[in-house]
Amino acid sequence: MNVREQVDQYLSDHPQQKSEELRELHRAILKISPDCKLWFLDGKNDEGKIVSNPNIGYGSTTMKYAGGETRDFYRIGLSANTTGISVYVMGLDDRKYLSRTYGERFGKAKITGYCIKFRSTKDIDIDVLEEMVATQMGAGSAR
Q1: What is the set of domains in the chain, with CATH numbers?
Q2: What is the 3-class SS of 45-71, one letter each residue?
Q3: pLDDT tens-digit series, residues 12-71
Q4: Tag placement on the chain: N or C end, fewer CB within 10 Å?
């Protein structure tokens, strides 16, 4: 299965409402950055153990680790979780950037250093999410 097929399968594997909301966000991100690299991570490590929720990635950035190692990774991530949806912004140096820049405008969302978590797209301001995605997909090596 190629990445687009994996993404489509992932989007279909959820209950109808969550599937529709994930598809809405997926389309919005692709509209903002139609030529971005598309990723799909199944949530398993090299040994096949589940270590995270599966997620869709968009764009690319170079992650730098404390030991000096680097690796290519997605810039924006989208994932379903048990209570709703998470959007990840990777490659941020400032752990307070998301909450300081978008926090008050997002709506009912929990914002951490690199994650915006919410129950439903009805709980957030989609325009603010799209603004954040557009800014991040245009930042650094996002494409």
Answers
A1: 3-137 (3.90.1150)
A2: CCCCCECCCCEEEECCEEEECCCCCEE
A3: 999 999 999 999 999 999 999 999 999 999 999 889 898 889 999 999 998 888 888 999
A4: N
